[in-house]
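Bench notes, afternoon.
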Amino acid sequence: MKVGGIMKKTNKFPYKRVRIYWQDIVSNSEWMTLNKAKEQTYSWCDDLGYLLYKDQKKVIIFASHSFDDDGELTVGNITVYPRSVVKKIERLK
């Protein structure tokens, strides 16, 4: 909330900053031998954000947040991961 030209946080921010390590599919459309095809692998990725939700099926983070004029938290840049691709969640300080 903006008061006298100064941003004032009206609510406590309860979400922890995390780094998500996850595996992604890699696709390749070039022609190659069977042996080279067998050597192909998936990609390791990581993302930063605030942990919104996690359970046995999914993990949700958001990267942007703001407080509206009423002090309500709004979030953006939301990413939902199938839990099966998330290999580690590291809490950051």
